[in-house]
Amino acid sequence: MAAAGAAQELCEELTCSVCLDYFTDPVTIAECGHNFCQACLTLSWGESGAEAFCPQCRGIVQQRNPKPNRQLANVVEIVKKLRLQERRVEAKAVEGKGRTCEKHEEPLKLFCKDDQGLICVVCDRSKEHRNHDVTPVEEARQEYKDKFCDLLEVLRQERTDILAHKVNLEEESLALLEQTKSERQKAMAELRKLNEFLEEQEKLLLAQMEEVDKEIARERDEHLARLSKELSSLENLIQEMEEKIQLPASELLQDVKSTLQRYEEKEEFESPVTFSSELTRRIQSFTNINCSLENDLEQLKDALAHHLQLQKEPTKVPLQAVHYPVRLKTKKRGFTPRYSDKQRTVFNTFQALMGDNY
Predict the structure, then answer these.
(1) From the CA atom positions of the chain, what is the Rg in Å?
(2) Which N-terminal residues, if any, form the signal peptide (predicted)?
């Protein structure tokens, strides 16, 4: 049992976390030391211009030049050979048993499709199997082998589709995060030009963007979890069928109904809906806010310049004519500031953009 557990752990260490199969042409990411199939890593990274991440730990990869791991490739080949030899030994051991009917001591040359089991010619003539669909073992083996091969094609195609969806999901999430990053930089550049009041609004806006980032990550993780679960289920079924078609007739035809039933009960993969329209709408709203901020800041600059110009000539302008572009506390003297139409438009726009916190 300990040896079997160690062998299982070794197989897991030699499995790519992207395709969930043995490494093929393994390469190592220098920054984190994780290994992947060369094709899987290339597919996961997508376009060369996009920022690259490790598919396993999500760490940023500075240079896209993973180093080939030849020692790991050699170990994978050795383990594959050992596993193949092990399966052959097990198959021979099973094939050596049960070649004759326990009841009639005749060779098991026939396969009963109704009972899904091997029978002898005497069993075939018995009342129990008289009206059953019985066929020679080799014909049955070839029939079910062909059926399994057809099913494998379907399963492998589904696996390919899921891997493609997984890559697309990663690329789309990175693009969305880049978009929010860009909008954040624009927002920060504009908000720093404002007074203490606008610094409070900056915190609010950044908090909303952070919430969107978390929502992007949450939706991405949900979809990735679903894809990984479906992929794991497919890999198990594929591995089972791949091992079955390599077995002799006596082993392949054992429990064949259960294998087919698991395939039939498998839920058909549906392309997942990626990111919600509400999420993209919220990101677009950041763009709209930034455009308005740019325009309104220009108006605010003009109003401030006008105010500073008036301050240079205090003796020429009565106090009542000065337009302050800020809100003043006037409880002591009951003073109410007056705004020009341009200034009032600026602050009304900010109030509409920022909401009730204004």
Answers:
(1) 35
(2) none
